[in-house]
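Q: what sequence does this backbone want?
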């Protein structure tokens, strides 16, 4: 092969590599549904964040994980039949940002009515905040069983909200405290603030 053939081959390889790079995942422009502020589908980074947030305490066989990715939200539920417990994560996208009106609407009495629809009763008994983190504490009743719920809301960014809820039987609060201290050490419970 002479010098000009080698140069042509090298240029051809560069062109092929450039074409391959332009077709690589993540390099193409987003073509999915959008709203006036951007894509409505969570990004791979959003999904990864939601799946990895607080995962370590739940890496035990007793915890069964299910998740869904929908426009504007990712939900992740972990259930533990042995403890009769639930851990629930919701990662919400507000592409255009959110303000107090959006927060008040989402975290209203009607909103919590939806969250606790499967319980016979629910009563807010405490609320506290620390920095960009808020905690709602609820007493729940279902089938003659008493439960406690801790519902954290973290303002992750100007366009993302992280919600994390733990529900445990009241007689297993010490177990819930262990999980809460690993997840939110600065706001385990309102009385420990």
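A:
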């Amino acid at each position: 092969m002479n010098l000009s053939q080698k140069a042509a081959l090298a240029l051809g390889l560069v062109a092929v590599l450039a074409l391959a790079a332009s077709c690589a995942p993540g390099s193409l422009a987003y073509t999915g549904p959008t709203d006036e502020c951007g894509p409505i589908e969570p990004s791979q980074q959003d999904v990864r964040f939601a799946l990895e947030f607080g995962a370590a305490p739940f890496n035990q066989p007793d915890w069964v994980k299910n998740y869904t990715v929908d426009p504007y939200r990712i939900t992740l539920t972990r259930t533990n039949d042995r403890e009769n417990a639930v851990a629930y994560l919701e990662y919400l996208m507000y592409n255009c940002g959110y303000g107090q009106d959006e927060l008040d609407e989402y975290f209203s009495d009607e909103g919590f009515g939806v969250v606790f629809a499967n319980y016979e009763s629910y009563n807010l008994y405490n609320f506290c905040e620390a920095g960009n983190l808020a905690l709602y504490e609820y007493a729940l009743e279902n089938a003659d069983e008493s439960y406690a719920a801790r519902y954290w809301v973290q303002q992750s960014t100007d366009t993302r909200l992280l919600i994390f809820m733990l529900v445990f039987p009241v007689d297993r609060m010490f177990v819930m405290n262990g999980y809460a201290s690993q997840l939110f050490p600065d706001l385990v419970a309102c009385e420990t603030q």
